[in-house]
Amino acid sequence: MRNANFDEATLRKLNQLSLVATQVRAGVMKGDRRSTKRGTSVEFADYRDYTPGDDLRRLDWNVYARLDRPFIKLLEEEEDLAVHVLVDASKSMAWGEGDQNKLRYALRLAAAIGAIALGTGDRLTTAVLQAGKVQQQYGPWRGSQHLMRLLAFLDGVQPAGLTDLNHSLRDYALAARRPGLAFVISDLFAAAGHQSGLADLQGRGHEVTLVHVLSPDELDPPLAGDLRLVDVETGHEQDISLDAGLRDLYRRRVSAWQEEIRESCQKRNVRYMQLNTEVAWDKVVLYEMRRAGVVK
Questions:
Q1: How far apart are CA 223 and CA 241, in angstroms?
Q2: 275 with 212: CB under 8 angstroms?
Q3: pLDDT one-digit tens code per residue, 213-242
Q4: Measured by CB atoms within 10 angstroms of the end CB, which terminus of the chain is less buried, N or C?
Q5: Which of 141, 156, 119, 184 is nearest to 3 (CA)?
Q6: Range(s) for CATH 3.40.50.410 in the chain?
Q7: What is the per-residue DSSP string for 98-113?
């Protein structure tokens, strides 16, 4: 992607992974997610709506003739998980140099999660959140043949607008047709917070993973002396004198903020991943997300 295509070795590793659902259920929200196999059992289980990319041989033509609406037959061993990847692309995400740029990092994570979902036949929707709404959306699609189109979609994402996660997430929650795994990727620099937005997603039946992305200099600013700080979203300016004592206070407050988010997520049964863009994105997906039980 704009930010680097997957090489063949990385894609092979991603194709060996699957996303883990512990709260939401497969298909029409009943039964456990039991297997990554597709159609290995001949026992009929249920129907679901047709999604572009589905095998037309799986359509129930008798039902289509009666209802004039396409349905896919699900078999007993089949999974059908909805996956939603929501990327905060507000102006504050445009911070950081090179591979440590937060938006670039977030888009790579979104691409990797999307590749895993498409590779295992899950139903993927990817959305770009800006200025309190869903600005762009890709999907829902199913099947690895859509990966290049997903990467092209993410390539075109540009930072814009203020961060308003509560309104953006509520906008998405109300519009999304099927609940499932919802990944929210953001720096969480939202003046009004993010808790009610996550609650809206959960209220619609989503199992939420909050991916909190910060750059190294946001965690420990390499600055000193008399400075004028400018908010990249509002343009508001603030003059400060930064010395060792103030830097230490800043680090403690950032740490306390992250811990507060972690405790809130734990109470709400939301997975929370705290990421520093200094750590390679592929290491996060292949190792940290596995350790956190997000993928297996």
A1: 10
A2: yes
A3: 999 988 877 765 555 555 555 556 666 666
A4: C
A5: 156
A6: 8-20+80-291
A7: GGG-HHHHHHHHHHHH
